[in-house]
Write a structure and sequence with these properties.
The protein starts with 5 loop residues before the first helix and ends with a helix. The protein is built from 5 helices and 8 strands; from the N terminus they run αβαααβββββββα. The strands form 3 sheets. A 4-stranded mixed sheet has the order 1-4-7-8. A two-stranded antiparallel sheet has the order 2-3. The protein has a two-stranded antiparallel ribbon with strand order 5-6. The radius of gyration is 19 Å and the shape is elongated. The longest helix is centred in the first third of the chain and has 14 residues. By secondary structure, it is an alpha+beta fold. A hairpin with a 2-residue loop joins strand 7 and strand 8.
Length: about 180
Amino acid sequence: PNFISEDDIEKAILQRFEQLGFELLNCYTADADDLNDGSRRADKRDVIFRERLKAGAVRLNPYLPETAIDKALSTLTDQRYAKSRADANREVDNLIRDGIPVEYENSQGKTTQGRVRVINFNEFDNSTNALGCNEYLAVSQLWIKGEQRYRRPDIILYINGLPLVFIELKNSNVKLQAAF
């Protein structure tokens, strides 16, 4: 009688994120290989929403040429196979926080150094609880192809196309050991 299902919890959380200003996107498909899930990914291995990432970078860096933004985003999304996971994560974190260093030719033809920001960390207005120029997206049921099989997290929170928060829900009556 007091049972709350995992689906009920997910719906409640998504509703709350929507109230906070997040766009919602349900990517569930019956077939894990189906690319028509609304995410606009070209490969199920991708977790970054590249179109949204580029749109956010263009929006946050209107003074930079598109070629510089493309070069910076390529640096951010490069595979880091030669590094440990910890080092790769640290590097990506620094690029997201500090901006991606890029060299480009300015309108006078001079080589210039710059940084491409992919998230505006100063935009939230506590007085009004308003979100600004970042794009906030809560994605549910996104199939992700791993090395051996597919995974489908319950919710992933994105800012400007970057997955930053992973939420996996479990039924309230499932023992912790079994849920893990």
